[in-house]
Sequence to fold (642 residues):
Amino acid sequence: MRACVSPDIDLNRVLAGDRVAVSRAISIVENDASGARLLLEGLFPKTGRAYRVGITGPPGAGKSTITSRLARYYRTQGKTVGILAVDPTSPFTGGALLGDRVRMGDVELDAGVFIRSMASRGSLGGLSRKATEAADILDAAGKDIILLATVGVGQSELDIARAADTTVVVLVPESGDSIQAMKAGLMEIADFFVLNKADRAGADQAVTGIQMILGFRAAGAWNPAVLKAVASAGEGIVEVAREVEAHRQYLEKSGTLHQRRRLRLEDRIAGLVEDAVREQLWNAESRGLLQARAEEALVGRVTPYAAAGELVNLFRRDHRS
Amino acid sequence: MRACVSPDIDLNRVLAGDRVAVSRAISIVENDASGARLLLEGLFPKTGRAYRVGITGPPGAGKSTITSRLARYYRTQGKTVGILAVDPTSPFTGGALLGDRVRMGDVELDAGVFIRSMASRGSLGGLSRKATEAADILDAAGKDIILLATVGVGQSELDIARAADTTVVVLVPESGDSIQAMKAGLMEIADFFVLNKADRAGADQAVTGIQMILGFRAAGAWNPAVLKAVASAGEGIVEVAREVEAHRQYLEKSGTLHQRRRLRLEDRIAGLVEDAVREQLWNAESRGLLQARAEEALVGRVTPYAAAGELVNLFRRDHRS
Fold:
């Protein structure tokens, strides 16, 4: 393994947790810059020690506050923390387009906490993949806990769940109306729930509502709890950290952590394979044929399906040579 | 061409605009049911006559109201209308998970209007592709105008813009704060803006705000207008329809309509090719190797990148035989 994968990146400095090197490494991954693959390949053998916690929920639930409070708590336990604030930029929800950095309060000043916002306007799965790769960098750089928090809304909930070992879903009493609606999607991703802003009216009813929905669930070995918190006042944060730990122990003892991480690696390898094959697919010849056939389809001389079949055959022929 | 692509679908009934046949055809496409491709291939030569209008904007902007009012207006002009309410289901934003049908008022009772909700939890681009395919069905079935409206939020704005000839972005005075933030994303997709609920305070300032942002744009042949409307009272709807027509004429005269539709077909054919190649990629042998290598990557014996390279080589070998 070469220690230096590009003129700008010294792998050993990343592994030593150097902030500038780590930050630059994440930028390389985020921008798909040349050297990203070599960098990740070099770091990969040093990953697997950090625990990855996903924090997601609807807008306004207080995800950033919970994340910064959790980070602060982990610091009091002597653990180093990496925070990735993941933003599925939508033109309407703003997000990273606002130009705002995520505000995490005093943890930003702590040398033991590394905070980074990541945005993606790319393809689905792109966010999950880049979050995973950035988490790999923080993992290799020696962070004990990596908090992957969603900013904004969209399909990022699923992306976060795909990249995390434990996924925490943050709700507020006002979420009550839509909890039933959330059922299908949330039950798939939530390892446990935090009802934040629990000092507001309707908190107990909201907790009962979530528990009732959970009750309809097929009995499993792990039963997602519903915790209450007032993150802005620091209330309930220790309990959240304890529940993360309890879930981690459950995953480890049951072998589920191994299984989750293996499936994550399968997805990741499959994605790399598909990217590589897609790249081989489009060259000057196939692009030219694609343009010609689209022109013909526009005037009804060929269907998109027949044109696609022809291109697939071209690809097979090229690979046969 | 066979007139009957499956025991359930008579192509000629779809082409004749039979509601039940059209509805069933869209279901087949939506569910990727067998026969979907044959159906679409059969209908494709009959497409290209309908004009496709995308209607998008943030939650609460009144997209459904504008859509139904526009449909009603087009009916008074003797045109038939198809409405596709496209929903990017997110567990937090609810959408189709709420089980609600989109409510469009009295146009629902008009035999000249076909309304359909479509949801997608699949991959990005899946929604755009299915909306395009459903629009093809409505196009072949003889609808003059197809309104593609987003429900909910997420990445669907872009999907809608990809599927439409003209894209209308609906905002409200309250959107003002985030208009600047929307700049990057919206300028790419908006052919013109409608400031709905223009009887509310701040409407004129919001219009000015949008115009100012538009002013920073490089001068082009088409300058997106900012119209005011109060859709719930039917105000400004005729002007929206006229602006759609003006944009259509601009696109036709400049050759841009041809170009937009050709690029859309290129995307579509490329997507079909990539799907077909991906399908060939994963068989019992490659899946087995993927699982084995993921297991090894988990214990650090191989990197995901090396494993992916091996699988790509396996694929090349298979194609060579």
